[in-house]
């Protein structure tokens, strides 16, 4: 942790908020008075603290110090459901941050309905007081459609159980559609892994005042050959590897021989972008910073394992790439692959033919897939050159041929052609940078 002298004003406020006991009520004015800062600075710090889950703001209750937690990105909270359906909270505000397990429509008798309810569910109901009470007692929040209010008895029960009671003007079908869409979008975000999900939080590092002799001692202890370098305040200022040490004497200081201005990522950088940096610059490890302070490190092995794991996870919502390739089957050939299928009808342009951008994306995806399916590494496009594209109707059976024409080191070149009814309608050449899982450090 940084010394107070090196901390920014915003960081000092965040540290103060972390030190408060759980349940402490916080306001902009009280925070500004306690720390003798402007209300603008206090407001910004509270918003930053909300994003870090240090505090939670509850409508009509105020901002409260809460225990920090890692929010699961694959689940919605009742608060988010309320926002999705433009709802109004009638009771149970203290339970808005609870995660939604599933939702169900209570269009049945009360006795049958409670058989399907589990704690953490959301029950969609109309103006049925007894059903609302039964759902709350079963541990589920209640969403009332049609813009109806609720009786005081129901509101009091929701407050007592800390289960949200929400009213929306939308009908049941619209509400179910909106919630399902929000769940689908949230599930798709599972693919977007962040660096803080995979990084090592206790990185081995060196300081600028240490010497080459210290580097050799670390080498014998850890077998690593590269280390991030920090200054007296803990800020990342460089990286030192065996390359720099080979040209130095044992008494030379690390700060004098290190490579300055190292490439780094932050905790909120996506793993996919970190992979691109590693491929582009041929880097095996990346330091992770928070306001320039070194907080972790990720390796090439960490990135590859994460990407392989996420590729195996089921996703509800399809991406554009999934939509393009879902109707294609692949066949391995010498020096490449063949893909057979049809382009979806929705990939149409204003003239009624296949969009050129969709066709280029298809060729690009087939080129990448032909390389990564046959090898145990990932790849990113370095260059993509299209020779020509001719008009093509949608939903026509086509053949995409990919041929690897050059492969050396960390690079690969692939030639791609699209065939329809025996005629070549598009041709391209792409080069890729490869992310191989070789020995680290």
From TrEMBL:
CDD domains: CBS_pair_DRTGG_assoc. SUPFAM superfamilies: CBS-domain pair, HprK N-terminal domain-like, Thioesterase/thiol ester dehydrase-isomerase, Winged helix' DNA-binding domain. PROSITE patterns: CBS. Keywords: CBS domain, Kinase, Transferase. Residues 199-257, 258-318 form the CBS domain. GO terms for molecular function: kinase activity. It comes from the Bacteria. The keyword Kinase applies. This is Histidine kinase. It comes from Thermoanaerobacterium thermosaccharolyticum.
């Amino acid at each position: 942790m940084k010394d107070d002298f090196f901390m920014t004003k915003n960081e000092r406020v965040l540290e103060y908020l972390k030190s408060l006991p759980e349940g402490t009520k916080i306001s902009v004015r009280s925070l500004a008075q306690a720390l003798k800062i402007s209300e603008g600075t206090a407001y910004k710090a509270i918003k930053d603290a909300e994003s870090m889950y240090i505090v939670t703001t509850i409508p009509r209750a105020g901002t409260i110090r809460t225990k920090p937690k890692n929010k699961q990105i694959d689940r919605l909270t009742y608060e988010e459901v309320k926002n999705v359906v433009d709802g109004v909270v009638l009771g149970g505000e203290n339970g808005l941050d609870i995660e939604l397990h599933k939702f169900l429509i209570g269009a049945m008798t009360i006795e049958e309905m409670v058989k399907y309810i589990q704690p953490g569910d959301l029950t969609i109901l109309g103006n049925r007081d007894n059903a609302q009470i039964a759902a709350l007692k079963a541990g589920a929040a209640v969403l009332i459609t049609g813009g109806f209010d609720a009786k005081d008895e129901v509101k009091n029960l929701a407050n007592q159980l800390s289960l949200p009671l929400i009213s929306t003007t939308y009908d049941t079908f619209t509400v179910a559609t909106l919630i399902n869409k929000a769940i689908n979008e949230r599930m798709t975000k599972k693919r977007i892994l962040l660096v803080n999900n995979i990084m090592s939080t206790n990185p081995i590092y060196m300081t600028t005042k240490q010497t080459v002799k210290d580097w050799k001692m670390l080498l014998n202890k850890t077998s690593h050959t590269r280390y991030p370098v920090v200054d007296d305040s803990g800020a990342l200022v460089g990286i030192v590897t065996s390359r720099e040490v080979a040209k130095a004497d044992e008494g030379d200081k690390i700060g004098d021989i290190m490579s300055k201005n190292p490439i780094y990522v932050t905790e909120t950088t996506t793993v996919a972008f970190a992979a691109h940096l590693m491929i582009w610059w041929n880097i095996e490890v990346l330091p992770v910073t928070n306001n320039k302070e070194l907080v972790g490190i990720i390796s090439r092995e960490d990135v590859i394992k994460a990407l392989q794991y996420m590729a195996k996870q089921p996703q509800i919502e399809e991406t554009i790439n999934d939509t393009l390739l879902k109707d294609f089957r692949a066949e391995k050939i010498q020096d490449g692959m063949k893909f057979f299928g049809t382009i979806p009808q929705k990939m149409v342009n204003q003239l009624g033919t296949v969009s050129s951008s969709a066709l280029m994306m298809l060729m690009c995806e087939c080129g990448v897939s032909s390389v990564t399916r046959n090898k145990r590494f990932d790849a990113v496009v370095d260059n993509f050159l299209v020779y020509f594209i001719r008009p093509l109707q949608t939903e026509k059976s086509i053949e995409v041929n990919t041929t690897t024409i050059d492969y050396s080191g960390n690079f690969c070149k692939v030639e791609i052609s699209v065939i329809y009814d025996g005629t070549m309608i598009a041709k391209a050449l792409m080069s890729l940078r490869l992310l191989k899982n070789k020995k680290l450090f």
